[in-house]
Amino acid sequence: MAQKKSPRIPLELHQIKAYEFYQKRLASGKEGNEIDDWQQAKEYLSQHPRAILAWNLKMPYRGGKRLIKRLLLSLQSLVRVAWKLLIFPFWLFQQIPGLFAREDKDSRTFAIDVVKTIISALGLIATLLAGIGLIVNYFNSQAEMQLTQQRLITERFSKAVEQIGSGKEEVVIGGIYSLERIAKDSPKDQWTIMEVLTSYIRKNSPIPSNKRQLKPEGEEREKTPEKLPSVSIPVQAALTVIGRRKGDNLAETTDSNKIKILDLSRTNLRGANLNRANLNGANLIGANLNGAFLEEANLDGANLDGANLNGASLDGAYLRGAFLMGAKLNGANLNGANLIGANLIGAKLIEADLEEANLIGANLVGAFLIEADLEEANLNGAYLNRASLDGAYLRGAFLIGANLNRADLDGAYLRGANLDGANLNRANLRGAFLIGAEGLNPEQIKSACSWEKAIYTEAKWDEDKQLWVAADREANQREIDKLKRDKNSDPPNLIDCNPHSAP
Predict the structure, then answer these.
(1) 245-274 pLDDT per residue, tens
(2) Lesser CB count within 10 Å: N end or C end of the chain?
């Protein structure tokens, strides 16, 4: 006897049942992912066809109810008009015998005209009723077409999910791009598809627990870990689909229960191509983006705390309000990147390229910017307390109102930098190149530490020592002596330059 074919599973019912399994999994503390929940829901519904039958029986009722609500107002006015038109001919019809009973010619002529009017009115009513019938048929056909489309989408979705669970790379890639097509055809299912794809990436490209993230150098010295592999072709395909989506439903809502967040935390995305990708608000905590391409990517509000972005290309990327606490960006290219209000506390930006980057109001407390290129970068109002800027290149940088309290500017190049109103209290100016710095007054200089060892005249690069030195030491000493003689600029209290003292 042939096995009875199981009924098609409606997508909405499938989603509801998968969510129920997801809630049960969370309550029980079991591990799993969205794909497993989807498969369990499919197996359950396949074994319980009556649940599908009950759902399908209710669908016409739901569709009919919505249709009635839409037509009610328009039908109400049409019924009123039709009723009046129906009553009027009958009223006229009642007057006809009396009109024909009269002997005068005018009454008989009027009676004939009344009959003609009744016939015309009945024709108009018939036309109106036919029009109403056409409207009802149109809405019914639209509802039926939507149901058909939904069934087709359900079938396509189920097949695509099965494909990405395949062991064959080409089948997986086909399933991923099928999901992208479904997301375009059915916007209401877009977020479900994004969750399936992010779940696939977390499952197939995780950071193994035995591979440690990079550690800081020196006292905070980085140890080179075993290299993780670059992203696979299917994972890259999934990232491409996620990155080029056209926004999310409710993505801009202020309701915290409805905000959609892409979860790519602790995933290995080494060398991934995410140029111009839409990763707004994404969760990339602890992700490995070593050597990744993120040029002009939208990472506004994204959480990249502890992420590894060493050597990544973020040229022109948008990182407004992004979280990058403790992130590794050593040697990264952030040329022209927008980091307004970004949180970079303790971030590692050693030898990073931040030329013309916008860091207005950014929090760089304790950040490592050793030998970083910050030429013409905008750091107005930035927090650089205790930041390490040893040998940093800050030519023409904007540091208006920046907080450089206890920052280490040893050997930093500040020619043409604007330090108007900047807080240099207890900052280390040893070897700092200050000639041509704008908005810098003697009071600011003397509030810093080791200002007597800064460079105030033309300098040259010492290849042996790998630092800037005064080209004319005597001329530089004369500038230092001049500052010392200016007692009006002396700080009211002795500056505590002990690095271990309280802030």
Answers:
(1) 876 544 444 444 556 899 999 999 999 999
(2) N
- 37-45's contacts with Cβ under 8 Å and 24+ in sequence apart are 38/14, 38/161, 38/196, 39/161, 39/165, 41/14, 41/17, 42/9, 42/14, 42/158, 44/17, 45/9, 45/13, 45/14, 45/17
Question: Does residue 428 form part of some domain?
Answer: no
Give the tokens for residue 142.
Answer: 């639209």
The verdict on residue 29 lying in a domain is: yes
Q: What domain range is 44 assigned to?
A: 11-164
Residues 6+ apart with CB under 8 A from 294: 274, 275, 277, 312, 313, 314, 317
Q: Which of 164, 186, 241 is nearest to 15 (CA)?
A: 186
Q: How far apart are CA 13 and CA 151, in angstroms?
A: 11
Tell me how far apart the alpha carbons of residues 21 and 10 are, in angstroms, rounded to a whole number.
17
pLDDT tens digits, one per residue of 387-433:
999 999 999 999 999 999 999 999 999 999 999 999 999 999 999 99
Please indicate, yes or no, if residue 101 is contained in any of the structural domains.
yes
Integer CA distances (angstroms), 89 to 45, 278, 487, in order: 59, 66, 110
Over 347-374, what HEC string results? Answer: CECCCCECCCCECCCCECCCCECCCCEC
Residue 83 lies inside a defined structural domain of this protein: yes
As a whole number of angstroms, the distance between CA 220 and CA 450 comes to 24
Q: What pTM was computed for the model?
A: 0.71
Q: Which residues contact 172 (CB under 8 A, 6 or more apart)?
A: 163, 164, 166, 234, 237
**Backbone CA torsion sign across 137, 143, 146, 147:** negative
Tokens representing residue 196 in the block:
């399936």
Domain count across the chain: 1
Residue 23: per-residue pLDDT:
81
Residue type, 61: Y
